[in-house]
Write a structure and sequence with these properties.
Helix content is 39%, strand content 11%. With 221 residues, the protein is of the alpha/beta class. It has a single domain, classed as Uracil-DNA Glycosylase, subunit E. It has a 6-stranded mixed β-sheet, sandwiched between helices. It is globular, with a radius of gyration of 16 Å.
């Protein structure tokens, strides 16, 4: 079975299966005319790209509705315009799965593929999902830069690379921090997650986020 079908067919976490399907059935008032995706959300972009972006989990009425990472909610509305400004996305605006958006030299994924209650996946649920992102990492043979959106995403990325390098890698989370992982592993850039909580409070500004993608472009050169 290919990775895409393996991801969208996953039934490992009983709590998440029940929740993603409940959200897809009850819907949000603003999206009552939508047929929700209601399944695990696969990664999106170019697996032969040089940049990997890792988030936490799908949003209830964003990715769980549209079926594409960071699509349909405020996080995506902040992320994709920034990627467009940096040259990683073909357009700044997006609404649904087949809106023409393409990523350039980049792949976007998450440590948890199903929407979790209260946006908080359990550690056991993330561990069930990690084989998917491990496979994506091994398929990204040109990978040079990993951007972790949030501390939880970074912690699990470091767990994966600790296994790969067979040495424990510990890097404190700090927005804007850039580290070269050991041996021939990629650079890691730490960024606040573009959640509504972070962007509306000013914890993450447009200028701060643009600096993340400028740094990624600089490392690629």
């Amino acid at each position: 079975m290919d990775l895409y079908n393996e991801v969208i067919g996953c039934q490992k976490c009983e709590r998440l299966v029940a929740w993603r399907e409940e959200v897809a059935f009850t819907k949000k008032k603003a999206f009552m005319d939508w047929k929700y995706w209601g399944k695990p959300v696969p990664g999106f972009g170019e697996l032969n790209g040089q940049v990997l972006v890792v988030g936490l989990a799908p949003g209830a009425h964003g990715s769980n509705r549209t079926g594409r990472m960071f699509t349909g909610d405020s996080s995506g509305n902040f992320l994709y315009p920034a990627l467009f400004r940096a040259g990683f996305a073909s357009q700044p605006n997006l609404k649904y799965l087949e809106d023409g958006l393409e990523l350039r030299n980049m792949y976007i994924t998450a440590v948890c593929r199903c929407v979790p209650p209260k946006n908080k996946p359990l550690p056991t649920e993330i561990m069930n999902c990690l084989p998917f992102i491990k496979t994506e990492i091994f398929q990204m043979i040109n990978l040079k830069v990993v951007v972790a959106l949030g501390a939880i995403a970074q912690n699990y990325i470091l767990r994966i690379y600790s296994e790969i390098s067979q040495r424990k890698i510990v890097i404190p989370f700090s927005h804007g921090r850039t580290d070269k992982l050991p041996d021939d592993l990629p650079f890691l850039i730490s960024s606040y997650h573009p959640s509504r909580q972070n962007t509306q409070t000013g914890k993450l500004t447009k200028e701060m986020f643009d600096q993340i993608w400028a740094r990624a472009n600089l490392l690629l050169r």
